[in-house]
Design the sequence.
């Protein structure tokens, strides 16, 4: 009937029920009707469609249109179409025309669509900190679009 070492049918998929080890699985979704108060940590992707009051750390974070985040966002890739009140740090940051960001953005690559609203500093992520002298910032201030520039952009304008 049962042989030693065999598993009952249907139990093979239950070895990783939370999906902790998968990299290409489905994203975790905070639906439009959901409000989360607290920090979110995820090894995969997170899509925010509702409201989050807390810090978010994930491989990829998408703040959807109509979503609200109050807190810091850290990831490898961040895409904002909704509202963020807080700090964003990621190598790749994309800001859609429907986005409203009140806070600083630290990035290696930043794409901003015309019409997006950003009030805060946009600084390039310094990957060569070992070359810096102590107490001296490698960031410089300048015109909008340069590292360290303060950007204020109203909806509908550039």
Sequence:
């Amino acid at each position: 009937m049962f042989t030693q070492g065999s598993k009952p049918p249907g139990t093979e998929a239950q070895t990783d029920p939370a999906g902790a080890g998968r990299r290409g699985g489905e994203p975790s979704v905070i639906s439009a009707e959901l409000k989360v108060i607290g920090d979110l940590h995820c090894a995969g992707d997170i899509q925010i469609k509702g409201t989050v009051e807390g810090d978010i750390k994930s491989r990829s974070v998408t703040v959807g249109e109509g979503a609200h985040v109050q807190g810091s966002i850290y990831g490898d890739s961040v895409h904002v179409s909704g509202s963020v009140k807080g700090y964003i740090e990621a190598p790749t940051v994309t800001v859609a025309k429907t986005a409203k960001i009140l806070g600083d953005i630290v990035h290696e690559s930043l794409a901003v669509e015309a019409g997006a609203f950003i009030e805060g500093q946009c600084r390039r992520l310094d990957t060569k900190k070992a070359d810096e002298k102590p107490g001296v910032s490698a960031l410089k201030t300048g015109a909008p679009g340069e590292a360290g520039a303060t950007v204020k952009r109203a909806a509908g304008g550039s």
User: Anything to note?
Assistant: Residues 6 and 63 are 44 Å apart (CA to CA). Residues 26-126+146-152 form one domain. The first strand starts at residue 28 and ends at 30. Residues 5-22, 130-158 have pLDDT under 50 and may be disordered.
